[in-house]
Design a protein that fits this description.
Blueprint: E1 2-7, E2 16-22, E3 25-31, H1 44-48, E4 63-65, E5 71-73, H2 76-94, E6 99-102, H3 109-122, E7 127-128, H4 136-145, E8 163-167, H5 171-174, H6 179-187, E9 191-195, E10 208-210, H7 217-230, H8 236-242, E11 243-244, H9 246-252, H10 258-265, H11 269-281, E12 285-289, H12 299-312, E13 322-325, H13 332-337, E14 344-345, E15 349-350, H14 353-363, H15 375-383, E16 389-393, H16 397-400, H17 404-413, E17 416-421, E18 433-436, E19 445-448, E20 453-457, H18 470-481, H19 491-501, H20 508-515, E21 517-519, E22 522-523, E23 526-527, E24 543-544, E25 562-567, E26 594-597, H21 599-605, E27 612-617, E28 621-628, E29 636-640, E30 666-672
Parallel strand pairs: 6-7, 6-16, 8-9, 8-12, 9-10, 11-24, 12-13, 16-17, 17-18, 25-29, 26-28
Antiparallel strand pairs: 1-2, 2-3, 4-5, 4-18, 14-15, 19-20, 20-21, 22-23, 25-30, 27-28, 27-30
The protein binds ligand MGD (2 copies), iron/sulfur cluster and molybdenum atom (MO).
Iron/sulfur cluster (SF4) binds at residues 8, 10-11, 13-15, 38, 42-43, 45-46, 175-177.
Length: 673
């Protein structure tokens, strides 16, 4: 039987899928044996990925909303020309900053490059992606301290690690295929520390579980730095030759003794000491960070505090060491790299006069020097009537943004909402125009995973019904708007332009033509698995210590005394649009609108398994089904993000640097219905 390789459409692991074909149609998904990251493995979502293709709910034709709220089918020409005319009129009347775009983290690099170039051609930097909602704080911290916003080491480096420290990650749910590397590491004698107020999700593997009080990670990481310094466990040579700012860092953590910090973190001082010693002396310690520490009021500082630990102990630039953000969506790393960001130009360049000039020379049009609006700013501006248009490619904000009531109000206020999607999402229902896109198997292009692996995804079948690839839709719209700078005839042509514009992607097109995947950046023409072996990417080559203080956020009150955290389960993906169409993933009777409750809280509140529970926050009220479990801390509750209603509760608090929402920390009250 014929087979063809592709990549899983879901998470940032970027697993290789080998499709078995019959008469040219894919009939079965299996793991690609020699794939450099997944090594033949897939999780249930990867195996089920084909099931969504045949879904009756797929969008088939462009649609326009009628005054009564229903949708009518229209032709592509009508849809594109009407959108172009409306866009032009609104820009002429209200200026380019009245328009906001979102790239899609399940779309290719080429599609994200196109949409950000289109936004900037219109004259605005209002272009965002889902990165704002998860690892933008990691990006900020990494850029500031080591000068490059991606994983320092690749995932297979775990086998060389002697200590793996997972922080705010539910790896077995969120990146399940990576657990094979944890097993390898354990076989080689590695120890595992898990920092998470729940779980441990890594229960099979964790040697030390620091069941921290939510939102207090900085205090813990500073206490670990305090132990490392006070017990003389720093790598003195590394600190002297490779870093700057040690004195300030040492001073800043003086007060963070494990004993003082216990009041904040509720972690026993002896456990903090054990963790710090293990981390410092293992010889090869790797930090893997999830969004449990970034979707927080001090998200960026959390990541900086972790990088301080790696710099103190020389855990950079060697096998089995480093700091790696566990990126979320299949192409969130790439979307940011190619410029789907309101604060960075392609290549992660800040919006400065010098950087604007260098890109303008290549693009041959003027770029705005004003920082764009972040996603949450777009929502607020839409409500205030300043933002008139949103153009969303593969993004479902009604379900995924905090404070759903506010998001719904914002989208209802727009003069023009265009949604490019494969399904009728909660967001598409608010659209004036819905543009149906071909799925990942029906178009080609490159995707960049959390491992810095740029993979070329082949087209397997033709676009179904009257759908079109995202890149073709954007090229057609640009043509209708009269922008010859965006006239492309293939994804490969766009990829060549990306490689010529973005320094870290330079040379990839030749390698990709040979192998179908290549790891960036190339150094002397070769892929590098370990970054920063002799210097960091900062202007002076030094790793910068960044002192950070723990700031208590007192969000709970008598009215809202409990902490709700939200996250993932292994069989559902984000807003569940796609996974809800895969019947093999659905267990009958299992609904995602539930809430995990500790048995002690359950008895205090008079709740038992299966009860309806009223959950209220400052932003809304919902009803969830009670699920009693011992994996939680007392006074803390967990609800999956997939069910669709939990974001009626979240809102308000943002990371102060990256303006990422604090999905991991909402003050709530709980009662029996
Ligand atoms: N099955 C599945 N996989 C996915 C996704 C999916 O929807 N489903 N989505 C993808 C995406 S977009 C992303 S971004 C990734 C996210 O993957 P992860 O980073 O694993 O994110 P979550 O599962 O949301 O939450 C991570 C953990 O943070 C913990 N946490 C909460 N508060 C705190 C705290 O204060 N401190 C610490 N240290 N931990 C805390 C939670 O208990 C939870 O276990 O997953 C990707 N993979
Ligand atoms: N409460 C709470 N909320 C959260 C989080 C949390 O932990 N808790 N996590 C946040 C995080 S980390 C993230 S990343 C966001 C995710 O938020 P979203 O990005 O809004 O969620 P997805 O479900 O991934 O939405 C992707 C959309 O793209 C569509 N799509 C899929 N493939 C394609 C394609 O090829 N082309 C096009 N045009 N569309 C396509 C899907 O049908 C879907 O509608 O949610 C955030 N929201
Ligand atoms: S781990 Fe992620 S990329 Fe791999 S099969 Fe599962 S969802 Fe797909
Ligand atoms: Mo994410």
């Amino acid at each position: 039987m014929e087979s063809k390789d592709t990549i899983c459409p879901y998470c940032g692991v970027g697993c290789g899928i080998t499709l078995v074909l019959s008469d040219g149609r894919p009939i079965k998904a299996t793991g690609t044996k020699d794939h450099p990251v997944s090594r033949g493995h897939l999780c249930a979502k990867g195996y089920s990925a084909l099931e969504i293709l045949g879904s009756k709910k797929r969008l088939t034709d462009p649609m326009r909303r009628k005054p009564d709220g229903s949708f009518e089918q229209i032709s592509w020409d009508t849809a594109i020309s009407e959108i172009a005319i409306k866009l032009k009129n609104i820009v002429a009347q209200h200026g380019p900053d009245s328009v906001g775009f979102s790239g899609g983290c399940l779309c290719t690099n080429e599609e994200n490059y196109l949409i950000q170039k289109l936004a900037r051609r219109i004259g605005t930097n209002n272009i965002e992606s889902c990165a704002r909602l998860c690892h933008q704080p990691s990006l900020h911290a990494l850029k500031k301290t080591v000068g490059f916003g991606a994983a320092s080491n690749i995932m297979s480096t775990m086998k060389d690690s002697k200590l793996l420290m997972f922080v705010g990650s539910s790896l077995t749910d969120s990146h399940p295929v990576l657990t094979q590397y944890v097993t390898d590491a354990k076989k080689n004698g590695a120890k595992v520390i898990d920092v998470d107020p729940r779980g441990p999700s890594l229960s099979k593997f964790a040697d030390i579980h620091l069941k921290i009080s939510p939102g207090t990670d900085i205090a813990l990481f500073n206490a670990m730095a305090n132990v490392i310094i006070s017990e003389g466990l720093t790598n003195k040579e590394f600190v002297k030759n490779r870093t700057s700012g040690y004195e300030q860092l040492a001073k800043s953590v003086e007060n963070y003794t494990p004993e003082k910090v216990e009041k904040i973190t509720e972690v026993k001082p002896e456990l903090v000491r054990q963790a710090a010693r293990l981390y410092a002396v293992s010889g090869a310690s790797l930090i893997l960070g999830g969004i449990g520490i970034t979707e927080q009021a001090q998200g960026t500082e959390n990541v900086s505090a972790l990088i301080n630990l790696a710099l103190l102990t020389g855990n950079y630039g060697k096998p089995g060491a480093g700091v790696c953000p566990l990126r979320g969506q299949a192409n969130v790393q790439g979307a940011g790299d190619v410029g789907a960001s309101s604060e960075f130009l392609p290549g992660g360049l800040p919006i400065t006069d010098e950087n604007i000039k260098s890109i303008e020379e290549k693009w041959q049009f003027r770029i705005s020097s004003k920082r764009g609006l972040t996603m949450m700013e777009m929502i607020s501006d839409a409500i205030e009537g300043k933002l008139k248009v949103m153009y969303l490619m593969g993004f479902n904000p009604v379900h995924s943004l905090p404070d759903r009531t506010k998001t719904e109000r914002a989208l209802s206020s727009l003069d023009l909402l265009v949604v490019q999607d494969i399904f009728m999402s909660a967001t598409a229902k608010y659209a004036h125009y819905i543009l149906p896109t071909a799925t990942w198997l029906e178009r080609e292009g490159s995707m960049t995973n959390m491992d810095r692996l740029v993979q070329w995804r082949n087209k397997i079948t033709e676009p179904s019904a009257n759908t079109k690839p995202d890149w073709e839709i954007l090229v057609a719209l640009a043509k209708s708007l009269g922008y010859p700078e965006l006239a492309y005839s293939s994804p490969m042509e766009i990829f060549h332009e990306i490689c010529s514009i973005i320094g870290t992607y330079a040379g990839l097109e030749e390698e990709l033509a040979k192998t179908h995947y290549v790891r960036y950046p190339l150094v002397n023409g070769k892929s590098v698995e370990i970054l920063f072996t002799d210097k960091f990417n900062t202007p002076d080559g030094m790793g910068r210590f960044t002192p950070v203080e723990y700031l208590p956020v007192q969000l709970t009150s008598d009215d809202y005394p409990y902490v709700l955290t939200t996250g993932r389960v292994v069989t559902r993906y984000n807003t569940d649009i796609m996974t809800s169409q895969a019947s093999s993933l659905l267990v009958s009777g299992v609904d995602m609108n539930y809430i995990d409750i500790h048995p002690d809280d359950a008895s205090k509140l008079g709740l038992k398994d299966g009860d309806d529970v009223r959950v209220t926050s400052r932003f809304g009220e919902i009803v969830l089904k009670a699920k009693i479990t011992t994996t939680l801390r007392k006074g803390m509750f967990f609800a999956p993000m997939h069910g669709g209603i939990v974001n009626y509760l979240t809102g308000g608090c943002l990371d102060q640097t990256a303006l990422t929402p604090c999905y991991k920390w909402t003050a709530v009250n709980i009662s029996k219905v």
